[in-house]
UniProtKB/TrEMBL annotation:
Source organism: Pseudaestuariivita atlantica
Broad enzyme group: transferase
CDD domains (UniProt xref): ThyX
The family this protein is said to belong to: Belongs to the thymidylate synthase ThyX family.
Keywords: FAD, Flavoprotein, Methyltransferase, NADP, Nucleotide biosynthesis, Transferase
Gene Ontology BP annotations: dTMP biosynthetic process; dTTP biosynthetic process; methylation
Active-site residues (renumbered): R223 (involved in ionization of n3 of dump, leading to its activation)
Catalytic activity, reaction form: dUMP + (6R)-5,10-methylene-5,6,7,8-tetrahydrofolate + NADPH + H(+) = dTMP + (6S)-5,6,7,8-tetrahydrofolate + NADP(+)
Record-level Gene Ontology MF annotations: flavin adenine dinucleotide binding; NADPH binding; thymidylate synthase (FAD) activity; thymidylate synthase activity
Protein name per UniProt: Flavin-dependent thymidylate synthase
Length: 301
């Protein structure tokens, strides 16, 4: 269950209470405010607050006042120009704050994006819940034979069942010992800040994560990519669904130029030019390594 009854009651209360405002409001963002989008088996992403919209990006780019818009078409065209030419500061005028519940090992990947403000649930002060990420059977995969940090084919049969049993049993046993160590029933009880070291990396944590749109899109470009680890990619996908409604022009440009586009090296571009002239280009005469050539052909195909 991603949300406790107390959390759901809080969300229902927040959504039932409205306040008058003079600030810019994005209707697409309003529908997502406080709503928890389930991710994995116990996780979620929910928008807590936001600032700005597509018009704010254009306003900053034109350094004007008021709405800063000439027309809807001009705004969309301007945003596409900014995205196409890798402008950054206009997109930094928009910010979003998310409440995320996620496994610790996903959080350790996520925190590598250092361009955000983060406040995480404290296991020094509070006791973590007995909630662990246990992959669905189809998410259990062998090590990739071509990518040292990727997955290969899914495990099957007895091996898959054994792995699932180990993951579940080990997590439960670690939590049992955690509870036993911090208990003050007939003993002093180990400090929570020490006992937490025995908890597995698949236990769930929570944090508030605030980031501007420019850095959020960089995060999504990497983590919503098909090559990203599945467990963080599903969080990125959930965030994409929010951003798509919040800043539709910016997200459409991002989807076109970043998610759906490709960056080519000078060598790769020269190979394309040779191909267009009818020349047969192979890995051996391309000037690329085998890995570069494989990636290049993946883009073309």
């Amino acid at each position: 269950m991603p949300l406790t009854s107390e959390q759901q009651a809080e969300i229902d209360d927040l959504r039932s209470t409205t306040q008058p405002t003079l600030r810019a409001v994005a209707p697409g963002a309003e529908k997502h405010l406080y709503t928890a989008h389930p991710v994995l088996d116990h996780g979620f992403v929910r928008m807590v607050d936001y600032m700005g919209d597509d018009a704010a990006i254009c306003q900053a780019a034109r350094v004007s006042y008021g709405k800063g818009t000439k027309s809807v078409q001009n705004d969309e065209g301007l945003i596409r120009y900014l995205m196409r030419h890798w402008h950054s500061t206009p997109f930094e005028m928009c910010e979003i704050k998310l409440h995320v519940k996620l496994p610790v090992f996903v959080a350790r990947q996520w925190i590598r994006h250092r361009t955000a403000n983060v406040n995480e649930y404290s296991a020094r002060y509070s006791i973590l819940d007995r909630e662990f990420y246990i992959p669905a059977p189809d998410a259990l995969a062998a090590q990739s034979v071509v990518n040292n940090q990727g997955r290969g084919e899914a495990l099957s049969g007895d091996e898959a069942q054994r792995v699932l049993r180990y993951l579940t049993d080990d997590a439960m046993r670690c939590y049992d010992h955690y509870e036993e160590m911090i208990s003050q029933d007939g003993q002093q009880g180990l400090a929570r800040e020490l006992a937490r070291m025995n908890l597995p990396a698949n236990i769930y944590t929570q944090w508030y994560w605030k980031v501007d749109l420019h850095n959020l899109l960089h995060f999504l470009r990497l983590r919503a990519d098909a090559h990203a680890q599945y467990e963080i990619r599903v969080y990125a996908d959930a965030i994409c669904s929010i951003v798509r409604d919040w800043v539709p022009f910016a997200y459409s440009a991002f989807e076109d130029y970043r998610l759906g586009g490709a960056t080519l090296s000078a060598t790769a571009l020269a190979c394309i030019q040779r191909m267009l002239k009818g020349e047969e280009v192979t890995q051996e005469n391309s000037g690329m390594s085998k890995g570069e050539w494989r990636e290049f052909m993946g883009v073309l195909e």
